[in-house]
Structure formats: C-alpha cells, structure tokens
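Researcher: Please predict.
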Amino acid sequence: MDNFLTKWNEVLKDMENLVTAVSYDLYIETLEPIKVENNRLVLLASTATTKKQLLKLHKEKLLSTVQNHFDNVDDIIVLDPTEKDSFLEDVKEAEKILETEQVLNEKNKLNEKYTFENFVVGKSNQIVYSAAINVSKNPGKNFNPLFIYGGVGLGKTHLLHAIGNYIRKNNKTIKLLYVTCEQFMNAFTKALKEKNIEAFRQRYREVDVLMVDDIQFISNKTGTQEEFFHTFNDLYQNNKQIILASDKHPRNIEALEERLRSRFAGGLIQDIQKPDFETRLAILQKKVEIENYTVDSDVLEYLAEKIDTNIRELEGNLNKVVSLSILIGKNNATMLEAEEALRDITSSQAQNLTIDKIMDVVCNYYKVKKVDLVGKKKNKEIVDPRQICIYLITELIDVPLMTIGNAFGGRDHTTIMHARDKIAQNIKVDKSLKTNVEDLIAMIKSDN
C-alpha cells in the first residue's frame, strides 16, 4: 500500500506542472486513489461534477502520467461518491468468484499422466479410443455428446483426462472444464445456498468443452437433474462439446429423467469392456516402461492371466509385486514375488469354491436341472450350459481335468478339454456369450 501511495504522489507532482493551478486544486488534488483493478487505476472524485469536468478536460494527461508511474495500467476509472459502494461491491463479488474459480480449478486439474500416448488400445476399447481422438481434434463437430460407459477401473477417467490434455495442448483458446458429477452437484447446492446461481451457470455454460465423470450419480437428484438438463441444452445448442462417463448405459441409470436419458443417447454411446489377455499384458508392459520397473517377462504374463477384473487392480498388483522385490533387496521382480503378492487373491477366490457351487450357479442361471447338466442329454439347451460350466470350473478353481470329468458323469479328460477350449474360442467372437460368462463369474465370486 505504501508503494501504491508513493506512486500516486509522484503522479500528483507531475500533474501539478501539466495543468493550471485552478484545475489542479479542483480536479486533481481532490482525487482519492482506491486501487488497481484489472489493469485499471480506480480513482474517487469529490463530486459528480468534478468527475465530469476531470474526464472532459484532463483524462488523457492524467492517464499518460499514471502510466509513467504505474506498471501495467491500461486505463483509469473515475467514480463519484454515489458510485463507490456499488463498484467496490462488484469488485468484491468478482474477487469471490475468481477465488472460487481458482479453488475449483485446483481441484479439477487434469492428470498429466493420462494421455492418449500411454492409453493401451485393444479390442475392448479401440472404438471408444477412436471416438475420443476424433472429439479431441474436432470438439463440438462430431459425436456430441460422447457418452462413455463401462465397469470400474477400465479406463473411462483416463480417456476423459486424455481428451482434456490433448485439447489444452493443441488449442489453448478452448475453454475446457472437467468435473465429477459429485463436484457439479456440490457446486450447484452451494450456489443455491449462497444465492449465487448466476455465477454457477456462467461457470458451466460459458465453456467450449464440458466433461462430467461418473454422471450416474445424478440419479435421484431431481434439482440437479433439472439444472444439468438446462446446462446440457445451452451447451448443445451452441455447438459446445459434452463428454460424459458412467458405469452404466443411460438406459440403466435408475431414476434418471427421460428427457436427460434422451439427451445422453443423442450422440455416440460407447462402452469399454474388460481387456483381453493380450491387452492386459500390453498394459503391464506399458506400466513397466513408464515407471522404469525391472520385472521378469513371465511375471507380467502371470499377472495378466490371473487378474482379469480391471486395469486398476491389474496395475495395483504389479506395484505390489515390485514393492515386495524392493523390500527384500532384489534388483528385479520374479515369479516368487508374484506368487506371494497374489497369494491372498488366489486363496480367497478358491476358498469354499467348489465344483458343486459353480454347477448350482450355472443351473440357476440357465434354468436347467443339475441331473441334466451332468447327464447324457445332447440337446442345445443342456449342452451349452454344460460346456460353459466346465469352462468356468477350469477357469476358477485348480482341479484336475479327470476330477471335473468324474463330476460330469464320468466323462474323460479329452471331452472336458474340448468343452473348455470351445467356450474359450467362442467367447472371442460371440459378444452375448462373453457377457453371459462374465455375469456368471461375477455371480460365482459374489456368492463365494
């Protein structure tokens, strides 16, 4: 503040030599400096008439003199006494909004590690990856909205951050906002409470790209759904890009207003499926490369085979293996650490899980009798569940093929191998079958 007043006193000294004594006494010396706001020096005149005459007679001289002493001042603002309180209140509100913006921006920073370059593409995600690239290069042009859905830990958030990072890197004029659904709801609730709804709307509707993660949490939030509906419409009608991520397809989000469901379905809806073995292995290899881990190749294959739930768990167990090797002073992670790291997982999966229990789940799922499942019937309604059941047993528990054959009415091991391999092959090409098998695995594990 002392420096501010010192500069103003220097302005007064110069102005005293540039105007008449009368003008100086009436219009210049009576000015009160308030602050520098947005590169403008704010001054308070003693009366409205003084303000009017000052601006008419001496504004150019005063501005030029001010710029000689104040860095980065582009203009001056002169207020009369009736305007002071209103102006300062507006400044205070603007500072409050700016502070809120800064806090939100800090919370909603994009993760720079999530890029397209380190997103591993496979059969399970190649279409949604292509769509994300397209939207990044042409926001608001194609696939609007882009709705990405899939299970936990499959890469939805990675893709959203990758889109945001690409846009910010390649088009700095685009105003982009990434939030979670929870953050949107909290901001809306706060705006209502503080009677600041216009500032909230300005923040969310004056962007070029809006990305909302976990949009399924808008379920049952009537007021938030109403506000988001209007935000969505405003952005869409102005050709602004909307990108949403959810763990469910719009049609499966409970208690979602039909008009929002319709809006979500109006662009491109694309799912991310669980990665296959090759993609899981590639993800681990990429992780090792990024983190500079030293891991035996057979460890990566072992992890890729054993962890088929999601990417987050896959990478988490890789970190666990590496940590174990570091703790015991090894330079590289081997199968010994991998087996130790996965001991809890494999033992918990196998605990209390039996052939009979898997059979019971399959019978309930396909509405077939257990006696028929293990019997000699060869009609498709029985053979398909039988082969799927055999496949599930070989995948989920470690038992000899002969034991499985005995459980299925004394079939030999080649018959068991045939059933296992047939389902394993068909899953690769039959999406419906793959979904059924994944549902069964989830049911078996949840019951265990």
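Model: The beta strands are 32-37, 40-44, 75-79, 146-150, 176-180, 209-213, 241-246, 268-272.
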